[in-house]
TrEMBL record:
Protein location: Membrane
Highest taxon above the source species: Eukaryota
Topology within the bilayer: Multi-pass membrane protein
UniProt protein name: RTA1 domain protein
Stored Pfam families: RTA1
Coiled coil feature spans: none
Record's keyword terms, sorted: Membrane, Transmembrane, Transmembrane helix
Any one cellular-component term (Gene Ontology): membrane
Chain segments annotated as transmembrane: 15-34, 96-118, 141-162, 174-196, 216-233, 253-276
């Protein structure tokens, strides 16, 4: 089924959206949002704020309520709410465009948090010299690439608002360009993370040490891999169009988009980089306290030693009368 006929009339999706699946992901992304909000304040992980800052969007369709979106996780949550709405009205073109507008660029915000998390991990491990890119520059460079990807994808989705078949095809190509560029940015990021992993592993040896740094780096690499796979599938989907094998089967939406993004969110929640930062701070405090005690004991021992070997004053015999 085509996205629109020659006369510009929207025909709808080539399948009837599953309402139950949409409700499941509304609930799971909503719970994940609450979990990340709690972790931000508990761990003081302010670099996770990009997960909670997104675009504020409003939409009204006669009796439909306005949707106010506050963060990428809520973008995902409300995106699948719109999909649930689409299951009730499969031929609603506005609902389809709004869903694509919400869900397609949401991983860009998740990626920004992943970039900043790697910078925090590098500083927590005191591995600035081992990183191929300075932590202060890493976040700026990759986030800049994210912004470019976001604008390109947003422009492509915006072109899909029209019911003109030709303009929709151009918009799909623009979205593919944005997704490909984001894949390249992630490839550079993964390369930097793998380089850091190898260098730090060779320095500290086979043991992970008290900070258990390996699982945090592996979690970031796994989350990055999930986003890359998702972008590849979405790129192929937009390249094929609504007539393609991916867009014509709803299972791909939940298997290679919703499920992968949920894995990223849960993984970043279970292995929150804030735990590593807190462990690093505690270790630094313990090392400082231990060094202070050793320094104090050494000073006392030196003082005692000096007192024990202090020369006694000479006592000259009194002159005899």
């Amino acid at each position: 089924m085509n996205a629109a006929t020659d006369d510009g009339r929207w025909l709808g999706l080539p399948y009837h959206p599953n309402a139950a699946a949409a409700i499941i992901f509304i609930a799971t992304f909503g719970l994940a949002t609450l979990g990340h909000i709690g972790h931000i304040f508990w761990l003081r992980a302010w670099h996770f704020i990009p997960l909670l800052i997104g675009c504020v969007s409003k939409y009204n369709d006669n009796p439909r309520p306005l949707l106010a979106l506050a963060d990428p996780l809520e973008v995902e949550t409300f995106g699948y709410y719109v999909r649930f709405w689409l299951s009730r009205s499969p031929t609603n073109f506005k609902a389809y465009v709004l869903y694509d507008l919400l869900v397609l660029p949401a991983p860009i915000f998740l990626a920004a948090t992943i970039y900043m998390s790697l910078s925090r991990i590098i500083m927590a491990l005191a591995a600035q010299d081992l990183s191929p890119v300075r932590p202060s520059r890493m976040s700026k460079w990759f986030i800049f690439g994210d912004v470019v990807c976001f604008l390109v994808q947003l422009a492509g989705v915006g072109m899909g608002v029209t019911t003109s078949r030709n303009i929709q095809e151009i918009g799909a190509k623009v979205v593919v360009v944005g997704l490909v560029f984001q894949i390249l940015v992630f490839a550079l990021f993964i390369s930097a993370a793998v380089t850091l992993y190898r260098r730090y592993k060779s320095q500290v040896g086979p043991d992970s040490g008290p900070l258990e740094w390996r699982r945090y780096l592996i979690s970031l690499l796994t989350a990055s891999g999930c986003i890359v796979i998702r972008n590849i599938v979405r790129g192929v989907e937009h390249a094929q169009g609504l007539d393609g094998s991916i867009a014509s089967h709803e299972v791909f939406v939940y298997l290679f988009d919703a499920l992968l993004m949920l894995c990223v969110v849960v993984l970043m929640l279970a292995l929150h980089p804030g735990y590593l930062q807190r462990s690093s701070q505690r270790k630094s405090a313990m090392d400082f306290e231990r060094n202070s005690i050793i320094t104090t004991e050494t000073s006392l021992m030196r003082e005692t030693t000096l007192k024990g070997h202090r020369p006694r004053p000479c006592s000259y015999p009194r002159d005899r009368d």
